[in-house]
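User: We ran a pulldown and think these components assemble together. Before we commit to crystallization trials, I'd like a predicted model of the whole complex to look at. Sequences follow.
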Amino acid sequence: MTTYMLMLNHAPDRYDGLSEDDYMAIIKDYVGWVEAMTEKGIYKGGHKLDDGPGKTLTAASGQIEVHESPFAELPEVLGGVMLFEAEDEAAAIAIAKAHPHFKHNTSLGLRAIQDV
Amino acid sequence: MEAAGGLPVTRLLDRIVRRERSRLVAHLVGRLGGARLDLAEDVTQEALAVALASWPYQGLPDNPAAWLARVARNKAYDRLRRERRELPYDAEIDKRSTNPEIAPDNTPDQDPELRLIWLCCHNSLSERDRLALTVKIAGGFTTGEVAGLFLTSQEAMARRLTRAKQTLRGSEKELHETPETIDLAARLKSVLKVIYLMFAMGYAPRRGEYAVRSDIALEALRLARLLAGHAPTATAEAAALCALLCFQASRLAARETAQGGIILLEFPLIAACGTAI
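Assistant: Here's a predicted model for the assembly, 393 residues in total across the polymer chains.
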């Protein structure tokens, strides 16, 4: 089994101004998915990232500079991450394809956690 | 996907949000006093927002109610600590409080949720405003749900609720009332109507995905029984409401299929009609 990380992207204003019912419908899909994966024993946890641009650190001319990350200009932001286990990449892709994220958003990143 | 109690997780989430919204506000008001109704509503809303942001990633906590109570209480205390420098704080109110995790459901004047209903059924409001505001705050419903109940648009209901809250805030003095000082008899009529409306929201929801929301109906029945079972609220009207709700609630289990669909009266499963109530 390999652990994979889902990086769930969404448009910066995706969740602004939703009615409570619409918002709840989305939340239920995500919570339902996590509960189902947990029941199968392959969910390894996840985190919502703080809403906000965060910082970008770059090494330039011998020193590390801290920048405000561009936010408003970005087509998508990283909303949160989730870890789960899958047999191989094909299985992980199948799981990712079935994620309710695609019902409400258009892209996510999938990376394997390196075994050590 | 089944979760605790055999409920699908989506339905469980609906119940938690509605139930805990009213319960948290009631317990915080019981702890901090009626003058802090705004604060109680704010921190409850904030706690729910935190929950709905993090649960999609972390899953439901083992005890969602305790999780929400802890977050809401911490937010309330943070806010009070910040405010205390500016506003005099009545430490006495804190002392006679109840523990928010323990719901003492014995008598009408001790039950935090019933206390909140008394408080919201305020004389300074018109009856329609009084009912709408109380169903919203003490019932834990959304503005949209209350609008559906009163057959009006969500925008109109939002304006009505805002005005009603301003009026309530204008009578700040009365918000310091306790059930001991409230004229229970004068408000009982409205309180009974509120409980009936709450029951109706559970027995026959007008909108949303469920044919029946029995948790809401049973909570209303609990409140009606509290009123009918204790002086000075044990009036003939309270007993009548209690009897009516018991009668209707006996059919709750026979109104809904396992998939959440409605069973009409022509085809009730007689055996499923409850005997426990």
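The interface with chain B takes residues 19-21, 23-24, 27-28, 30-32, 34-36, 38-39, 43, 45-48, 80-82 of chain A (CB under 8 Å). That may be worth checking against your pulldown data before setting up trials.

User: Thanks, that helps.
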